[in-house]
Amino acid sequence: MTDFSDKGLHTLWHESQPAFEPLALEEIKRQAGRFGDAIRRRNRREYAATALVVVVFALYAVIFAEPLIKIGSLLVIAGAMVVAWQLARRTSRPDPDAEAQDISGYYRERLIREEHMLARVGRWYLAPFVPGLLVFMLGQAKASGMGGSLVFLFVVALQLLVFGGVWILNRRAAAMLRGQIERLDAASPPTEGDGK
Q1: Using one digit for the tens of pLDDT, what is the confidence trace for 72-90?
Q2: What is 45-113 written as a DSSP string?
């Protein structure tokens, strides 16, 4: 899910000032704008990837005769739709009135929402694909006769590595967002009842 080849979030986090140094209001506004742009680009990529997954696995469901491959393909499509729905539900949304409000608080809330989403990527992003991919791979193994072979185990291990990599990258991105939230908290003056 997280694409570090795109300079979006990665650049935002790595080009910012050292941790816990207070941010000026103009810097917060600039970072909030860049963050919103990065989220929009990421969401467009994810929706395009969902469309591609749906098209490819719909073709698999039509082309292949093996029932497990057909069922697995349909489950993968369902998983992709769940992921797209979860992304739309979980992602932070821009607020056109934020400029007139407390921009620092608004930016902080968006960071928190994105951090929560990325920290839980295993549940809402990876897990919906697992049943479909397992059934699909079992169908492929049955159709090709490689059920107990090393090739099948290699394919399963490769999928686990990809899922593990996605999970690790997103957990790392969530940790970076937590650092950004801490910087904002350090820059915000304490209010009554805050306990700061």
Answers
A1: 999 999 999 999 999 999 8
A2: HHHHHHHHHHHHHHHHHHH---HHHHHHHHHHHHHHHHHHHHHHHHS----TTGGGS-HHHHHHHHHHH
